[in-house]
Amino acid sequence: MSGQEAAVDTSLRTPEERSRTFAGILINTALANVTTSYLWFALTFWVYLETRNVIATGVVGGAYMLLIALSSISFGTFVDRYRKLAIMRFAAAFTLVMFVLSGVMFLLTPGAGLLDLGQPWFWIFTLIILVGAVVENLRNVALSTTVTILIEPDRRANANGMVGMVQGLAFIVTSVFSGLSVGLLGMGWTIAIAVVLTALAFLHLLTLRLPEETHVAASDAQGGFDLRGSIAAVLAVAGLFALIIFSTFNNFIGGVYMALMDPYGLEMFPVELWGLFLALGSTGFIVGGALIGKFGLGANPLRTLLIAVAIMGALGALFAIREWAWLYVAGIWLYLALVPCVEAAEQTVIQRVVPLNKQGRVFGFAMAFESAAAPITAFLIAPLAQFWIIPYARSSEGAAQLAPLLGEGTSRGIALVFLVAGIVMIVAAVLAFLTPVYRRVSASYAQAPAEETAGA
Predict the structure, then answer these.
(1) Which CATH superfamily is domain 13-208 in?
(2) What is the mean pLDDT of residues 400-412?
(3) What percent of the chain has pLDDT over 90?
(4) Roughly what angle, to the nearest 10 degrees, separates helices 396-406 and 412-433?
(5) Where are the domains of the chain?
């Protein structure tokens, strides 16, 4: 009997009852994600509006992804060692404490000192919020394993699509209210709202139950940072490491957007309108997740993933090729409609080919590896854009040289970065299709159901 079979008893409740429990966990996670993203977006908007410095937003964004990369191995280790619901409750409580501390610091530190990038107070304040937001991601690792526990195998791709749809809904709410909150209420009230919502999510989480996990699956996970076990769990499945590489393609260009997408939008729109237009574009996230929830990912999720990555590269290259508001918003809509496809494809493959007692570490390793790509590009691109690319594009000579390709406007330097990054994404996805590893991973996924049946 496998560790998963010994630790999970799905006979305790019907599939419909388990689906309702999953819906409750999903809604609770959505509220937590809304709150975390609300404060995170607000911090990014606030920093840029007060400093007008893309290095600051690039460092803040890159630091967030870097912290996720450094902590995800630990997240996966804890998920494998402890009950999934207990992990979610711990993450919610920790985030609540961090957000309260950020509010106290905001009240006690003079505004000028808090916004002085040369003083430690700005970085301490930012770090407190970032740590709270990063630990909240521990819930997302646990959420992926609850799909395995609660959802029937043939419906997991659809469930992963619903996860993407809910995350898109959170992104929309965040986009609207973060801009309005910073523009109309200020950062202080924004922190207060985040604290209240985090407390509500924690209290609701205390009411949920997960009886199917009768006990923690027997696992070889050790300590709080089982890097060796994480690597072994990934390498145990042929081609799984390559799947993580494929998913990292998406994060490469994500680092560019992290550093420059908000500055581009804030140059084009007032902060309140930028939040609204970003929310409009983000409805693509919901549509993409809903389509996966309805139709799944096809017979080969990996093929679907690579096609989506190539299309995302084309969108990233073209949605700022002219400084037109409708083109930018439409490009964001289409780009975000494909994000749930990429994420759900990876999750679906892992949930099928990796045993439950190793899934936490595999998901954590994947999060660490993929998250590390974004800070590298964010830290690299932000200074290049601030000191070289943007000044060049705004000079008379640079503007004249870029005009035939990128048109005219104040943000042509950012558009140039988007164009180059998108082309690189397309090339990477096309090359991945040609590798033997792609065929090997596809075969592993196709053979998994037959092997499970034979084992039973």
Answers:
(1) MFS general substrate transporter like domains (1.20.1250.20)
(2) 85
(3) 13
(4) 50
(5) 13-208, 226-448
The pTM for the full model equals 0.74
C-alpha–C-alpha distance, residues 425 and 436, integer Å = 19
DSSP 410-447: TTHHHHHHHHHHHHHHHHHHHHHHTSHHHHHHHHHHHH
Q: Residue 8 pairs with which residues in a beta bridge?
A: 213
pLDDT band (50, 70, 90) for residue 374: low
| Contact call for residues 229 and 222 (beta carbons, < 8 A) | yes
Distances in Å between the Cα of 70 and the Cα atoms of 89, 91, 367, 368, 371 are 21, 16, 10, 6, 9
What's residue 11's pLDDT?
80
3-class state of residue 3 by DSSP: helix
Q: Quick one: which of 419, 231, 257, 429 has its CA closest to 345?
A: 429
* Fold matches, 13-208 and 226-448: yes
Name beta bridge partners: 213: 8
State the pLDDT at residue 101.
95
- Distance from C-alpha of 145 to C-alpha of 343, rounded to nearest angstrom: 14
* Residue 3 pLDDT > 70: no
CA distances from 438 to 123, 199, 312 (A): 42, 44, 19
- CATH number attached to the domain at 226-448: 1.20.1250.20
Sequence-distant (≥ 6) Cβ neighbours of residue 277 within 8 angstroms:
265, 269, 325, 328, 329
pLDDT-based confidence at 336, cuts 50/70/90? confident
